[in-house]
Amino acid sequence: MGGGGREQDSRIISSDHDLDEWTFTLTGFTPVPPFQSPGGEGGAAGTALDSLEVQVLGGHGEVLGAYSAWNAELTRLDEDRRQITCATALLPHRDAQPVWELWRQGGPQQKNLWTELPSGRRAGWLQVVALSAFATSGAARPKTPTSEIVLNGEHIVDLDSFYLAIGEAVNGPGGYFGWNLDSLTDCLHGGWGARAAPRIRWENFTDTQRHLTQSTLDSLLSVISDRTSEVELR
């Protein structure tokens, strides 16, 4: 955990929701300075922190991804448990933990492993894909950006699977290329594994049509058409 604590083996074990403010209990917390100093954790009153970053660490201590929060307060409950009250725009998804474990082992080595998850349970995988890409500044992207994206629509049954499919089409297994319309727009401007305004060949498009609503397809195609040199639907 950034900002003064180590959270390598910690787990979020409970949470209570009140509007945009959340309270978490962390277990397995190992204090480091300044929290080791007398009174460093503020006792029952808590310690105010401007911002807080909960990092997901790999086996060698490398940062795999991070969840950010602000207006945070840390309170000591007992020897190895701390309570954090904070505001955050993104909570760890309930299905993200096993995916982070896969990333700790080096990440997926082949495409479409996420298709083994049922529709509606892929958001956790997508969250890990995005946060790991942000944490590594896209280090896993190909050295030479592609000018053509070949997107296979066979497994696209919802928005999450669309972003997972296009991420792997551009950047290989576990690859990222947006996780909502705004970030997809950013990626199509270049710098995330594809050249600006690439050509897109959407194969098995009829498979996608059977699953996505027309309004969802229209939104995706509007963004793609405006920011690519050509779109071919096959």
UniProtKB/TrEMBL annotation:
InterPro entries: Barstar, Barstar-like_sf. Signal peptide: none annotated. Coiled coil: none annotated. Pfam families: Barstar. Residues 149-230 form the Barstar (barnase inhibitor) domain. Belongs to the barstar family. This is Barstar (barnase inhibitor) domain-containing protein.
